[in-house]
Write a structure and sequence with these properties.
Structural class of chain A: mainly alpha
Helix content of chain A: over 70%
Order of helices and strands of chain B: HHHH
Radius of gyration of chain A: 20 Å
Distance between the termini of chain A: 54 Å
Distance between the termini of chain B: 57 Å
CATH superfamily of the largest domain in chain A: Winged helix-like DNA-binding domain superfamily/Winged helix DNA-binding domain
CATH topology of the largest domain in chain A: Arc Repressor Mutant, subunit A
Shape of chain B: globular
Oligomer: heterodimer
Order of helices and strands of chain A: HHHHHHHHHH
Shape of chain A: globular
Number of strands of chain B: 0
Largest interface: A-B, 60 and 52 residues
CATH architecture of the largest domain in chain A: Orthogonal Bundle
Radius of gyration of chain B: 19 Å
Number of helices of chain A: 10
Strand content of chain B: under 5%
Number of domains of chain A: 2
Largest sheet of chain B: none
Strand content of chain A: under 5%
Largest sheet of chain A: none
Number of helices of chain B: 4
């Protein structure tokens, strides 16, 4: 398909969708972009990937009579695009520098005492009906806040692993880190993210 | 015996690789006695499960609108034709 024809098609579909829900499309695009920038550390590449993913998905927009289905689909395309770009690039210039920065100055005295036991007020509590939370849009705002509160490479690598669902080995190759680096990074990301979600969501929830 | 910091590290690693028999035994012993790490263990699985639904969770309410067809999210990953 020539670019021109593709352009016209997109124009039409974008209009159709935008007419239905301009705010929805805008919000979706913002969130896709935020995610793509995190993964690619490059605004332009991220813009392109999001654009392509939206185009790909909106070509089929009529077949989605539920927005949530469209959203899932659009993100599935974006995931693949990002994975392709990462594989092609095969090298994160900043990775080793970020890793060192990350290793330095991070300790978890906040969480554990000098014997390595949980501080009383940091000891994990049981989460009530955790899978109900995912249906709540406010939960995802908290999740994003927590995610973006992590050091950047922790957030990126955590999402590569858990959302993009790369295998460990592949992340190591793409990011040029060792398996033990990866495990340390994931551990730190999980510690922080868990703690943040608990304090900002699950305990709040309990009190309500 | 493993402390909480070492135990949580093992629990995180357990998401990435198969733990050795010794490691699993050490985990069990600690987790029986420590409710914090017991919760942490469950939450490692939950965190994975939750994160995998991230795309679905970018909810319409962000834009202040509801799904047109229905309010429930069960069938989110079914692309209806």
């Amino acid at each position: 398909m020539s670019d021109k024809i593709a352009g016209e098609l997109i124009e039409e579909d974008l209009t159709a969708v935008a007419l239905l829900a301009p705010d929805f499309l805008k919000a979706l695009r913002v969130q896709m972009l935020k995610f793509a920038v995190l993964q690619l550390s490059d605004e332009q590449l991220a813009e392109d990937a999001v654009q392509e993913a939206l185009i790909g998905a909106l070509k089929n927009a009529v077949s989605f009579n539920r927005r949530s289905a469209l959203k899932t689909w659009v993100f599935a395309i974006l995931k693949n695009k990002i994975a392709d770009i990462l594989r092609q690039r095969h090298r994160m210039i900043e990775a080793s520098r970020l890793l060192r920065e990350d290793e330095e100055g991070e300790n978890f005295d906040m969480l554990f005492n000098d014997k390595g036991l949980w501080h009383l007020d940091e000891r994990p509590v049981a989460w009530e009906q955790p899978m109900e939370s995912v249906k709540n849009s406010h939960f995802w705002r908290v999740f994003e806040t927590c995610l973006h509160g992590l050091p950047e490479n922790q957030a990126r690598i955590f999402m590569m692993r858990e959302f993009l669902e790369f295998e460990s080995q592949e992340i190591c190759e793409l990011q040029e880190i060792t398996v033990s680096n990866l495990h340390v990074i994931l551990y730190r990301a999980r510690l922080r993210l868990r703690e943040c979600l608990e304090h900002k969501w699950f305990q709040e929830d309990e009190r309500a | 015996m493993k402390n909480c910091q070492q135990t949580t590290r093992l629990l995180s690693d357990g998401q990435e690789r198969k733990l050795s028999f010794k490691e699993r035994a050490e985990l069990k012993v600690h987790v029986i006695m420590c409710s914090g790490c017991r919760n942490f263990a469950q939450q490692m699985n939950l965190l994975r499960e939750i994160t995998r639904t991230y795309a679905k969770g970018l909810d319409d309410q962000e834009a202040g609108v509801q799904d047109d067809m229905s309010g429930n999210n069960d069938a989110d990953d079914q692309h209806k034709e």
